[in-house]
């Protein structure tokens, strides 16, 4: 089975852990790389050879140094990496964020629930919520 | 032009016309008086003239009588004439002063009369001396032959009569001319009077209509503006006239613009505040979620390694984070009650039934009486009922709870009542419960965040309704609120 390679761009350690824990629950082989802001993610991407590039980028929007939208703009202008699949994972429900990123080209927009009780009702836990979406991403369903 | 100036001008024109009219009438009356005086004088002249002529004729008769009869009665008539005629000429001359033609005529008469006097005197003197001597008889006879027989006196007399006739004719003609002129001026004045009076009336009415229309049109504009402002449309009125009303319009426009700006500022600030509340609660929620997640992970991964004591302590944390989240949500709701939503047709019965179905436990008895149809903001009404019903459920800690909801119409409002048989509220707390963060019970024991009733009151206040509670401790509570039709 092909090993999925994910690049998580997220400044909140808790969310990083959430993703890590969720990935462990999915019985799909994976490789997770984490960058804490857009700048760091770009540097990492630059360091990869073409065959080392990640299959999916999970991108938070609200980050220091270089936020998600800025990162996405740079990414889509770079010939070598512009084709990469990007999923937005954010707590921002602002329609302007959604429309801006959609214009730049994204594969999915996932709003992280802030209200964990609502989330619990739906998917059990924050982690389960992330797992639910990751499963779809890893299986290529959400494209 | 200034309005006061326009009004002043209109009044001035009307007054001016009236004054001109009065002046014309006054001048006419002066002329009438003058003419009447003239006519009086003219009458006196003719009377005098007749008297004078008569006096002269009498004198001539006296003269002739004396010469023929030598009767001294005739002589006295002649002497009378001598005495009276000259003063009569003088007074007549005075009367006709100013009319040189007539004066000349009169002078000619006087001259002729003087000539006649000279002629008559010589004859009379000669006749008186007749008895004295023979020589005087000869003188008289000579005179008689030379003068009387040659009709000198008669020629003079005829000339005098002719002149008098001419004098009178002239005087009569003058009089006729004058009366004709008088009539003419009366007619002219009448015409002028009618013209001025009617133009005064027309101009007065026209300017009145003009000014009234001008003012009322402008005032109507401003009334419309004020109405617009009162309805929240901050329009302005364009006004190019430069008068007193313009400054009022300008002030109204300024007020409207200022109000518009203030309302816009307020709306902007409100928006910013809502945004602030949203961001704050958003950012407050994130750490709470983090804490919750970590506790969950500890329980999942290390649950079997934890001592019962630690597990107990850890279990407190989610309770508290839950309360924290409820508080944040409550604050968010409180901030959001300001947000306006579109009103819609609301079937209150169905709405309350649905809310009650979600909130009231199955063991409770629930009575829902007749409810009205309203055209209102559904979300707000839903929030009110939701808060009141959940409040009732919360404080009716018995399985046989009983909640009754009724409504009735009072004027422009509906009065709703939500009544329970719960623990009730002591009268001293009846005001306090509507304040934010007022929970009357122990924090742990109650799930209340103390925001629900504050939100409810805020929503009802915004609708200009009112809310109150009837309750005694241990005897259940009845919340009564009004909502506009």
Q: Can you walk through the features of this model?
A:
The complex is a heterodimer of chains A (143) and B (485). With 143 residues, chain A is α/β, with parallel strands linked by helices. In chain A, 45% of the residues lie in helices and 18% in strands. Chain A has six helices and five strands. In chain A, strand 1 (4-9), helix 1 (13-25) and strand 2 (30-35) form a beta-alpha-beta unit. Chain A starts with a strand and ends in a 5-residue tail after the last helix. Helices cover 71% and strands 8% of the residues of chain B. Mean pLDDT of chain B is 84; it is low at 440-447. Chain B has 485 residues and is α+β, with helices and mostly antiparallel strands. The radius of gyration of chain B is 62 Å and the shape is rod-shaped.
List the uncertain runs of chain A.
118-123
CATH homology superfamily name of chain A: Response regulator
Number of domains of chain B: 3
Provide the spatial order of strands within the biggest beta sheet of chain A: 2-1-3-4-5
Q: Give the helices and strands of chain A as they follow along the chain.
A: EHEHEHEHEHH
What is the CA-CA span between the terminal residues of chain B?
A: 51 Å
Provide the CATH top-level class of chain A. Alpha Beta
Mean pLDDT of chain A: 80
Class by alpha and beta content of chain A: alpha/beta
Helical stretch count of chain A? 6
Which properties best describe this structure?
heterodimer; A: 143 residues; alpha/beta; five-stranded parallel beta sheet; globular; B: 485 residues; alpha+beta; 3 domains; two-stranded antiparallel ribbon
Write the SSE topology.
The complex is a heterodimer of chains A (143) and B (485).
Chain A: E1 4-9, H1 13-25, E2 30-35, H2 38-47, E3 56-59, H3 68-77, E4 85-90, H4 95-104, E5 108-111, H5 116-123, H6 126-138
Parallel strand pairs in A: 1-2, 1-3, 3-4, 4-5
Helix pairs in contact in A: 1-6, 2-3, 3-4, 5-6
Chain B: H1 3-69, H2 72-95, H3 100-128, H4 134-148, H5 152-230, H6 244-302, H7 308-336, E1 344-347, H8 348-359, E2 365-368, E3 373-376, H9 378-394, E4 402-410, E5 413-419, H10 452-462, E6 467-471, E7 477-484
Parallel strand pairs in B: 2-4
Antiparallel strand pairs in B: 1-3, 4-5, 5-7, 6-7
